[in-house]
Amino acid sequence: MNDQLFAGYRRALLLMLFVVVLSGMARAAERPRVYVGLPPQRWLVQQLASNRVEIGLLLAPGQNPHTFEPAARQVKEMVAADGYLLMGLPFERALLQKLRAVNPGLRVFDLTQGIPRREQSGQAHVGHGGAAEDHDDGCGAADPHVWLTPAGMGIMASNAAVALSALDPAGREWYEVRRVACQQACAQLDAELRALLAPVRGGLMLTYHASWGYFADAYGLRQVAVEAEGRPPTARQLAALMDLAMQEQVRYVFTEPPYDPKPCRTVARQIGAEVAVIDPLAEAWDRNLRAIAAQVRKALERPPARQEGQMP
Ligand SMILES: [Zn+2]
Known about the structure:
By secondary structure, this protein is an alpha/beta fold. It contains 10 helices and 8 strands. It has helices at residues 3-30, 39-49, 72-77, 90-102, 150-167, 172-197, 213-218, 235-247, 262-271, 285-300; strands spanning 33-36, 54-57, 83-86, 107-110, 204-207, 222-225, 252-255, 274-277. The radius of gyration is 25 Å and the shape is elongated. It binds zinc ion.
């Protein structure tokens, strides 16, 4: 082969490589851009889409979804978004208003459609008759923590698959296969949690923030929150809580990362309980829920009663 011919081959090869790289970049750029608020939503989209979509996440670890406001940089980025998957959190209302002005083509899908809503309750109702009042802790009257049961996540998987197929019709089959697998995994996790928590049915989860209402409902537990109407409890509310905790022999007070642990420590110290941190926003949603169920079981389990005359 002479040199000229070789150089020609080399040019052709380089050109082909260049074309391949360019078309790869074009494909990457064509991926739909989907935004979500919470880490468990990103987990869900990843289950269904794998790398077929680009996922933008608004909340960083440790941020509180009830007080969160997206940074100007995040809003700017979302001008190029194709879809937003709604969780029904307060910050989303203001965000969508802003986005509709700058990105009229943005398609918004409600992930929570079809999930039976419970009222926001479990907040320090002790001391005023236990009646559910219309609290607004920034959550609104309906409890927004719908992602914290496998049943809720299963419904969200359906909604997310519909949303992704609408944004990317060529991927319908891809999303559908993964939607089925995700829902099977949710059903299996539900059965696992049911079995794990059966021995502590009726138990009381004393939590700082009322995140665990759906979870408690699903597994026959009761939730009472230290926080009252989105604020730290008053001295009187705290006293009522402590009476309840003593009565119920509460051994653990649950809190979560964005909240000040001090009120929990106060309650815990006075009733001889421990503080346990459980995170409703961890991204590895399935592993997290399984670990939390194990912690709740441990917290609510009664030590076996010692029988009279039993040898040590
Ligand atoms: Zn919350």
